[in-house]
Amino acid sequence: MLKRYTGRTLAAEIIMALIGLLFLSPFYFLFVNSVKPFGEIMSDSASWPKIFQWENYSRAWELTQFPQAFTNSLMITVVSVAILALISSMAAYRMVRSNTWFNRVLFMLLIASMVIPFQTIMMPLLRVVNELGLNNTRAGLIMTYLGLGAPMAVFLFHGFVKSIPLEIEEAATVDGCTGISVFFRIVLPMMRPMLMTIIVLNCLWVWNDYLLPSLILQRPEMRTIPLATFAFFGQYTKQWDIALPALVLGIAPIVVFFLFLQRYIVEGIAAGSVKG
């Protein structure tokens, strides 16, 4: 059956389409300028390329040492997000099911930390990393991501756990499951929508982050993709013909990842918005 459009519905959909095109316009500029010579980028950045200069991508691949930067970004993102999702889910589950005064205070402290601007703790955090001897290491960067990402993850998991019926866990305990078994075999699979939401959101954050890696990782061989791309922007020169292809190479994996898993974001947040 064909959908009947009223004047108001048609106008709303046209407006939404125009807004969608507006949000997609940066990707257009990024791609078309990534295959232009430097002179054409400077003279007319909005036009379609006269000649597609794919050599820009090979130069960016070599100059950024892309395989090494990609490996660093991938390793830091996967380890950080995996540990963050596991620890935060376990912490939130314990806080909900063991509603002691200590757990309530701890949860309130975690929530309160979400309103603290990162700039106010940036230098003390860097000093802590230096004191622990974790500067210029992936472990130091992963540790900081865990500390900064845990409050939001615990908050989202906390709301979701409240929607899980306690009777299911009690039945599993009667059948002989231990506390750990109940969590990993019963609760964690039921938390899958929120788990995927946490994974997607934090992957986007960690993969695209520039500030924290720039503070902790100074050695060239430790560079992530954002750090490797920023090397093309100096005080007097901006190598757009190389930087733009490097940006395309850097964002392509995370965009594909997001497109495959985006439905879990709305599903997980909606499922976690329960009272209790």
Automatic annotation (TrEMBL):
Broad class of where this protein is predominantly found: membrane
Entry's localization field: Cell membrane
Domain ABC transmembrane type-1: 70-261
InterPro entries for the chain: MetI-like, MetI-like_sf
Alphabetical UniProt keywords: Cell membrane, Membrane, Transmembrane, Transmembrane helix, Transport
PROSITE patterns named among the record's database cross-references: ABC_TM1
Sequence intervals crossing the membrane: 12-31, 73-93, 105-122, 142-161, 182-207, 242-261
Pfam families: BPD_transp_1
Membrane association type: Multi-pass membrane protein
Organism domain of life: Bacteria
PANTHER family, alphabetized: ABC TRANSPORTER PERMEASE PROTEIN MG189-RELATED (PTHR43744:SF12), ABC TRANSPORTER PERMEASE PROTEIN MG189-RELATED-RELATED (PTHR43744)
Family (UniProt): Belongs to the binding-protein-dependent transport system permease family.
Protein name in the entry: Carbohydrate ABC transporter permease
Native organism: Paenibacillus terreus
